[in-house]
Amino acid sequence: MPIGNAQPSVRPVPSGRTDGAAAEAGGRRRGAGSRHLRGGSRAERLAPYVLVAPAILIIVVLRLYPLLLGVNFSFTGDGERNGTTVGIDNYLELLDDSLFRTALGNVGLLVLLLPVAVAIPGLLATFIYLRVPGHRFYRSVYFFPAVLSPVIVGAIFNLLLAFDGPVNAVLGAVGISPVDWLGNPDVAMFVVVGVHIWATFGMALVVFLAGFATLDAALLDAARVDGASLVQVIRHVIIPGLSRTIAFVAVTTMVGMLTSMFGLLYVMTSGGPEGSTYLPEYYIWIQQGQMNRPALASAASTVLFVIMLVVGLLQVKLLRRAGGED
Questions:
Q1: At the N or C end, where does the chain have fewer CB atoms within 10 A?
Q2: Where are the alpha helices (DSSP H) in the chain?
């Protein structure tokens, strides 16, 4: 045969060897991929704990540890018994103190007035959300008191509510006898709480407006089409839709009432008249700052913490039940 027509011989490669190499390479790739996925999933599981670790550390060091120290200190004595263990003597003394019992009674009054403190910013936020005329102006006006110092607010209302002040002058002009707003033990606490609500509801208003941003507008439109009144819309659409927001505002408002009224009490009444405006935080300051009884103040602080914890948990539970949540 001519040499030019000769065909080069090709030796076939066994198919088993090629398939085995390909399978081995694919196995290596799959193994590397599975290890990569396992490593990625492990990192994803650990990422939330790494992110919250600094916050948890700060809470433990600056909150939890001092709290435990305060609870431990409440079982020690004051004065001649300073540093010695006295058991529950401080707590028994609190129960025998009429001022502390008055402070606890005023805590009950705050709980009764809490729905008013939550309803006011809630209703105002509803009107702003529904865009009543002038809603932009009202939003600014309602929030303005929240930026004022409690000392300034207290001084302003001391002038307004003085026995010969503008409020009594207006009442006298319409034939109503003047009221001793800050000197009557039956009235003073209501006045201080009312001033506190006026000065702080701006923050709750902002929270409610943020909650309205998550509300389904289609439900409001459907309610309007069905001819629902404003009261029916609030009861059947807005309140169920904002149950979580209401729970948050209720808890934060109650905590603010229990822990943020010292400035108003100090400026407006100084705990008077006749101790009628005492709250636990003011009692704690008196015992620590004036009576030099830090152990008794620690016991009162522990009682205040337990009250806030119990009231907060009960509020959340009741509001969740009202909102139809488990």
A1: C
A2: 15-59, 65-73, 89-96, 98-129, 135-143, 150-160, 166-173, 188-212, 217-225, 230-233, 239-241, 243-259, 262-268, 280-285, 294-322
Q: Report pLDDT for 93.
A: 94
What string of DSSP letters covers 170-238?
HHHHTT-----TTT-TTTHHHHHHHHHHHHHHHHHHHHHHHHHTTS-HHHHHHHHHTT--HHHHIIIII
Map residue 76 onto helix, strand or coil. Answer: strand
**Domains in the chain, ordered, with CATH?**
96-322 (1.10.3720.10)
Query: Cα–Cα–Cα angle for 318, 244, 247, nearest 5°?
Result: 45
Name the residue among 295, 298, 297 with its Cα closest to residue 84: 295
Peptide bond into 273 cis (omega under 30): yes
